[in-house]
Known about the structure:
Blueprint: E1 3-8, H1 13-22, E2 31-38, E3 44-50, H2 53-60, E4 67-75, E5 90-91, E6 97-105, H3 108-117, H4 127-139, H5 144-154, E7 157-165, E8 172-177, E9 182-185, E10 190-193, E11 205-208, E12 213-217, E13 222-226, E14 232-233, E15 238-239, H6 244-248, H7 255-261, H8 263-274, E16 275-276, E17 279-280, H9 287-294, E18 298-303, H10 305-321, E19 326-330, H11 331-334, E20 345-351, H12 357-368, E21 372-377, H13 383-387, E22 390-393, H14 406-425, H15 434-444, H16 447-455, H17 458-468, E23 473-478, H18 483-497, E24 500-505, E25 522-527, H19 534-546, E26 550-556, H20 560-565, E27 568-572, H21 580-598
Parallel strand pairs: 18-19, 18-20, 20-21, 21-22, 23-24, 23-25, 25-26, 26-27
Antiparallel strand pairs: 1-4, 1-10, 2-3, 2-4, 5-6, 6-7, 7-8, 8-12, 9-10, 9-11, 11-15, 12-13, 13-14, 16-17
Helix pairs in contact: 3-4, 4-5, 8-14, 8-16, 10-14, 10-18, 14-15, 16-21, 17-21, 18-21
This protein binds 2-deoxy-2-amino glucitol-6-phosphate (AGP).
2-deoxy-2-amino glucitol-6-phosphate (AGP) binds next to helix 10.
Amino acid sequence: MCGIVGYIGERDAVPVLIKGLEHLEYRGYDSAGVACLHRDSCDLTVVKEKGKLIKLRERLRGRILSSHIGIGHTRWATHGEPEKHNAHPHSDSANQIAIVHNGIIENYSQIKTELLNQGVPFRSQTDTEVAANLIGKYYQSGHLVEAFTKAVARLEGFFAFVVIAKDEPDKLLVFKRSNPLVIGLGKGENFVASDVSALLPYTRQAVFMEDDEYAIIRKDRVEIYSLKTRRPVKRRPITIEWDISQAAKSGYPHFMLKEIYEQPEVVRNILKSRIHRGKIVFDSLDKKVERRLKNIERVHFVSCGTAYHAGLVGNYMLEECVRLPVNAAVSSEFRYEDPIVDDKDLVILITQSGETADTLAALREAKKKKALTLAIVNVVGSTIAREADAVIYTHAGPEIGVASTKAYLAQLTVIALFSIYLRQIHRGRKGISAGKMKSLLSQLVRLPAQIERALKQEEIITNCAKHLFRKQTFLYLGRGYNFPNALEGALKLKEITYSHAHGYPAGEMKHGPIALIDKNQPVICICPKASATYDKMLSNIEEIRARKGILICIGTERDKHLTKLAKYIFLVPDTAAMLSPILTAIPLQMFAYKVAVLKKRDVDQPRNLAKSVTVE
Ligand code: AGP
């Protein structure tokens, strides 16, 4: 997720761009840049810097860039490390145009090959520069709008672009597909940005673009067209009522709720950039790593907190897909237990921040013992990402809420893909069949829409939370793939509501926790139909009913039997057992959020917690 802005009008463009980017830094901040056309000569100037926006501001200090039109970008790297040469804006090889981009171009490598074969030079590893050179190639015709629409029509994926050209300094060109883009209407000036927060210092009149639309934005006129028909689209402006802080949350009351609702897009991004023609591809894993992966004999997931729960799910996923012994460990234990690890072991570090001290120490311990280390990380260029032998980024975008939500779903999705990928390369070994792999892939691609359906339970969950938020303790039970989600649901509730909550494997009930059950005890039971232990879970639910426990069940749509048993029921779409934690996590996150709001907690920054625990 990146932040993009554009301006055309009478003001000095660069300060407007920088101010806009300040409001978009929550979308990504590993590098930033601006491009503008000189007010008189129309020369194209591009200034970009690695690191946060402050670095770009320092670079611009003292430079006189007199311009009335420009574009800006703050990056959350997807293709290409967060280095300066990969920062946006990118220009074409002839420096005729500049572009900023938010999203992923899926067919960039084949277009890049085509352009390289035509002798077009490249300066970066980004997919964005491919778009710049493709537009530049067609622009030799001399007509910018034609060149822009022809190039965009060839690109596959989901993206938002803003383009300027030195020979046509009277217009910004923009295009939108899947990723957000909103136009701000001023008097004798116009703006465009990834979201309204960048517009509010200047205007509250906004026009939201829709998918597969492009626009020609002049200082006194905005024209929107359908890419398919090339015909103009009429779109009424709306008045934005949000204040700046609400706008950064896209109107949600908390970052946590916004991030819960970003999950369909996050999972879609991960799947689209990793599944190609029925095969799973991890661009970041080179041949040397793949060769080592083919010879590993044991796997360890090592992580903390929510990421540890992802490791526990990964333990089940990997053992199902590739019959290798797998172990999930807490980083703070692994680092001190002199783990039995050698060069035949794969140690997978899971971490949203890439800076967690215990996980970093575990990584260094594993490397000392010659294990192959793979980091599954969200923050590009973080310490753990840089020190591991290999890295797979989750591309969930910045997660601001301290309670991890979208990063968890991103981790589960990446681990599911990696499990199937490992089966793909471990052909000679035992594991799931090709048919099962195919079925899992087809069920994976249905997940984004299924997550959207699961999110429609918000109101039902709110009503349940209203009845239960004053309870002192909560019990979470699950089996198999959903045992780790029992721990995750309990952690979510603990860390943002400060209520006591315990997660257990449901089979453990009779070994103690059942003593807790009475008519005041809420018990959340995770019971998807696809689970191999569905019937066993039903028996546990009967045991709770027999003791008058307050039953909240998370089940599969149209499960009438479970619905009859539960006092409160949250239903999610049906999917493979292996993928079910990705869906059952949604009501767990939403329930914790709703209870926290009812208890008037500081949802995004709960007491005593930090987003990244960089100390022991
Ligand atoms: C999860 O909601 C917590 N914020 C916390 O447990 C977190 O998952 C843990 O600190 C690990 O952080 P990391 O993923 O950045 O390594």
